[in-house]
Amino acid sequence: MKVFPLRFCPGARALAGHYMVGHEEMGVWMPEAIEDYGFKKAPTLGGFARYLGERLTWEGHEDDGLLIHIAGYATEGADIHPEMWFVRNYKHIDRATGNYYGHGREFQVSEEFWTGDYLDALRAGRRPGTPFRHWYFNGFPSGRATYNALRRHLVDLLDAVWNHPSWKFRPPTTIEELATFMRLEINLVAALFEASDYETPYVGGDAQVEAIATPAGSVAL
């Protein structure tokens, strides 16, 4: 299991890389870490990201590369808004190949959406309240690149289907319907790895999709 829901706030986290912390499997270590942090007073998405970074720095191994995405809604402060936290012990990414390199013991923690990509979009002229989507990828480079390419082609195909004058297909209108399409996209990539010549199936198994409903009172993007 590589996708873990967070019970203490509306969010989930996904990981790529080594599946052990010390001598314990991530499937055991991570649910316990989520539960332990959830007992803290006023747990938050960002607080959990920093908590993971600190624990993994002390409990992980320097030779184990790991990338973690934590997505959900910040519930502290004056507004409720989406965030995407990135916890990793890699220092760099090769923009040409997509490979990660330079990993070590210390984990870095940063928020990438609310204070990064969305803020950049506003600075570039996007009006608040207009629909905004952004994708984040981690994991095996060719899998990430393939998923991104498939998604672009699927957008064109689905737009043609949904805009057909005599068909009654339509875009998803609920979080559950959207999750169905996300699952389809991920399973397409898994099928490609199933029929590949890679030494190991870096992507595979049933797609894991965690649909996070927008909390009441969230800011409009």
Question: What is the fold's blueprint, element by element?
Answer:
Blueprint: E1 3-6, E2 11-17, E3 20-21, E4 24-25, H1 26-38, H2 45-59, E5 66-74, E6 81-88, E7 92-93, E8 100-101, E9 108-111, H3 113-123, H4 141-162, H5 175-194
Antiparallel strand pairs: 1-2, 2-5, 3-4, 5-6, 6-9, 7-8
Helix pairs in contact: 4-5
Classify the helix fraction into a percent range.
25-40%
Write out the strand line-up for the largest beta sheet, numbering strands in chain order: 1-2-5-6-9
Number of domains: 1
The residue ranges in which pLDDT falls below 50 over 5 or more consecutive positions are none
Helical stretch count?
Answer: 5
Largest sheet: 5 strands, antiparallel
Average of the residue pLDDT scores:
89
Element order: H for helix, E for strand? EEEEHHEEEEEHHH
Coarse shape: globular
Compose a concise summary of this entry.
With 221 residues, this protein is of the alpha+beta class. The chain contains five helices and nine strands; from the N terminus they run ββββααβββββααα.
Report on this model:
This protein is an alpha+beta fold and 221 residues long. It has one domain. 37% of the residues lie in helices and 18% in strands. It is built from five helices and nine strands, in the order E-E-E-E-H-H-E-E-E-E-E-H-H-H. The protein has a five-stranded antiparallel beta sheet with strand order 1-2-5-6-9. A two-stranded antiparallel sheet has the order 3-4. The chain has a two-stranded antiparallel ribbon with strand order 7-8. The longest helix is centred in the C-terminal third of the chain and has 22 residues. The chain is globular and about 60 Å long. The two termini are 31 Å apart.
